[in-house]
Write a structure and sequence with these properties.
The protein is of the alpha+beta class. Strand 3 and strand 4 form a beta hairpin. It has one domain: Alpha-Beta Plaits, CATH 3.30.70. It starts with a strand and ends in a 13-residue tail after the last helix. Helices cover 42% and strands 25% of the residues. The protein has a four-stranded antiparallel beta sheet. The longest helix is centred in the C-terminal third of the chain and has 31 residues.
Length: 134
Amino acid sequence: MKIVKESFNRLLGRMEVRFNLLHPGAGTPKRFEVKETLASKFGRKPEEIYIIRYETKTGTQISEGICHIYENKELARLLLPKHVFYKNLPPEEREALKAKEEGEKGKEKGKEKEKEKEKGKGKGSPQSQKVGSP
């Protein structure tokens, strides 16, 4: 792994790193494996590292990426887009969180349907309403 650029963003409280990863004779490494490699290189925990972008150049065995290293998880959750935050969770946590949120969405949809039914009860049928007469 080669670090191309490394800078500290004081305003957002994070280290921003641009890196290249060579993987000759193998496919593109998984995001979680890259996080562990970066963690060992910087002496940090994998939970503090968030890979923002990670892609392999077409026709080569070189991957380029950008990652942010935060001091704490809450700051990362505040600043990062939701999809980037979820992509960087370990697979087990990601599935558990996804299931939890889908359950909450299902409850909200059920409440909305109940409200619509209640609104529709007081109006009566459309046939009983007179149309076009003053």
